Amino acid sequence: EMTPEEIAFQERIDRGEKIEPKEWMPEGYRKTLIRQVGQHAHSEIVGQLPEGNWITRAPTLERKAILLAKVQDEAGHGLYLYSAAETLGVSRDELLEALHSGKMKYSSIFNYPTLTWADMGAVGWLVDGAAIMNQVPLQRTSYGPYSRAMIRICKEESFHQRQGYDIMMKMCAGTPEQKAMAQDALNRFWYPALMMFGPSDKDSVHSAQSMAWKIKMNTNDELRQKFVDQTVPQAKYLGLTVPDDNLVWNEEKGGHDFSEPDWAEFYDVIAGNGPCNAERLGARVTAWEEGAWFREGLVAHARKAEARRTS
Ligand code: ACO
After folding, report:
1. Do 127 and 109 meet the contact criterion of CB atoms below 8 Å apart?
2. Quick check: pTM over 0.90?
3. Among 164, 193, 200, 223, which residue's Cβ finds the most Cβ atoms within 10 Å?
4. How far is residue 188 from each of residues 126, 185, 231, 244, measured CA to CA in Å?
5. How far is CA 150 from the centre of its chain?
6. At 54, is the secondary structure helix, strand, or coil?
7. Which CA distances in Å does 10 have to 32, 129, 142, 145, 147?
């Protein structure tokens, strides 16, 4: 049974109105947004780690400058998203504590290692490509601060995606060894990229309610299908083979048939048992602990400035 307040709220959502921070919202709406926006923010900052790993080893000065800018952008995305989450009444410290203690998740994809330079290409092309596929519709999400954060994020993500594809084009036009590295990167990142969209619709616990509230605009399977259909021709253009023997164009549905990722692996990774979970979380916790002196300095400075103003 919906209360009159809840009915009026749902009508606003259905009319396409944006919900703003100080307005009434159901507790479930607030909680779902804190979970999704918080996890999204965590994904941005944990997502810096597999690429930050390659900044010192980028093959040219130009590639290094581009990668540095991209990794910095991800920090910025984290900041917009933490700020959007804070408007829902949760503090940044609480969110980070929940990340560090393993209570909150971040995207499964960042628990895979980046072994070669070609992985920087595959991450930009596939991981940022999947991120955009999911985030472009979220520009129309019902919560105002989240939807506005998405607009700038999407612009930057499309630059990231192109820089990744550009690396892949270069590798694929290079020596046979370089092309083999590109193929190997595609082989390792294909299924983890498909997992980014979340479990199949029949196993997605939050989709129905989140879509009714327009916190999510599409189901996980819809976006996964769009991603496959967009990416297969791009792989073909590179002369690379998508590692799926069941991949075939289905004229009738106007999309590709393809193999599902290994969902047991997915659930294992989000339970904390992926190849790099401990390393990634460890890096975040260390950064938090080693940054304590800086946070304390900022607070001390703010107190002094405040005392000077009021004395
Ligand atoms: N990685 C980690 N956890 C995931 C993933 C994933 N790829 N996909 C689903 N899950 C989790 C969900 O968080 C949920 O767990 P929880 O209840 O403990 O939070 C559980 O699996 C069940 O999944 P769903 O019911 O389908 O969850 P939801 O409706 O939240 O859909 C999705 C998942 C599609 C990721 C959604 O949260 C979303 O669109 N988030 C915003 C985009 C985002 O976070 N992107 C980060 C990717 S990369 C980047 O931006 C750099």
Report:
1. yes
2. yes
3. 193
4. 11, 5, 15, 12
5. 11
6. coil
7. 15, 32, 11, 18, 18
Q: What whole-number distance in Å separates Cα of residue 275 and Cα of residue 77? A: 25
* ipTM rounded to 2 decimals: 0.98
- Count Cβ atoms within 10 A of the Cβ of residue 159 and give its class: 0-12 exposed, 13-18 middle, 19 or more buried: middle
First vs last Cα of the chain: how many Å apart? 55
Cα(196) to centroid of ligand 1, in Å? 7
Q: What tokens were used for 292? A: 């304590």
- The amino acid at residue 256 is H
Q: Which helix (H) or strand (E) holds 261?
A: none
Report which of 58, 72, 73, 200 is spatially closest to residue 119, judged by C-alpha positions: 58
- Tokens describing residue 96: 């980070």
The ligand 1 atom nearest the CA atom of 74? 51
pLDDT tens per residue, range 169-226: 999 999 999 999 999 999 999 999 999 999 999 999 999 999 999 999 999 999 999 9
Rounded to the nearest angstrom, the distance between the alpha carbon of 99 and the centre of ligand 1 is 14
Q: Ligand 1 pocket, 207 CB below 6 A?
A: yes
Task: Dig out the tokens for 90 from the structure.
Answer: 């949760």
Pull the structure tokens for residue 21. 């921070």
User: What token pair was written down for 78?
Assistant: 């984290």
